[in-house]
Amino acid sequence: MPERGTQRTTNGIGLQVGQTVTICKLNSAGAEVFAYPGVVAQVWPTGARLDAEWTLPARSLDYTTFEPGDHFIEWYFTDHWYNIMEVRGGGERLKGWYCNVTWPAEFQPDRVRYRDLALDLWVAPDGALTTLDEDEFAEDTSIDAAARAHALAALASLRELVARRAEPFDALPK
User: Fold this and answer.
1) Were both Cys, which of 74, 110, 122, 147 would link to 130 (CB 3.0–4.6 Å)?
2) SS3 letters across 92-110
3) Beta strand 111-123 with 20-26: parallel, antiparallel or unpaired?
4) Vertex 112 angle, CA 90 and 145, to 5°
5) Domains in the chain, start-ordered, CATH in brackets?
6) pLDDT per residue over 73-82, tens digit each?
7) Pairwise CA distance, residues 11 & 42, whole Å
8) Region for residue 127 given its phi and psi (left: phi exceeds 0; alpha: psi -120 to 50; beta: otherwise)
9) Residue 73 phi, psi (nearest 5)
10) How far apart are CA 121 and CA 89, in angstroms?
């Protein structure tokens, strides 16, 4: 992932900074679960960072609440089996990072698609980690052995990024 200050306007995946795209979440079998708009904020040869807003009703989870107006800063990659969503509430207060373990993202001229593998990691602002949906991941018969191995490696990679306080987790306390 390029540094936050690095700004390119276009890349080989066909997106342009400032462009509005549709972000599509697919389930592990490839069916669309939901879609929402996002604005391309940064691009590089293997991915993009987008800005999106939570527009659904408030959703209270064990570790946080997603509320209308929450700002999502989302990183998608063609060369990683995950995406990362930094969640900020009112006044841009950091709520944490929601990390989806997924197939590598697919970029199209007007959309970004990701195929979710159920396994997720929540990173709290203090650095506490919560692995989510392990049962769902274990029970999903549409995920083959190779994808499972990639998913577990991706989860380990995310944990390692957090431990190193690598971007975007560089705001975590040391």
Assistant:
1) 122
2) HCEEEEEEEEECCCEEECC
3) parallel
4) 105
5) 20-171 (2.40.380.10)
6) 999 999 999 9
7) 9
8) left
9) -105, 115
10) 19
Place of tokens 């996002």: 38
CB-CB contact of 43 with 10 (8 Å): yes
Q: Report the pLDDT value the prediction gives residue 13, as an integer from 0 to 100.
A: 84
Are 17 and 8 in contact, with CB atoms under 8 Å apart? yes
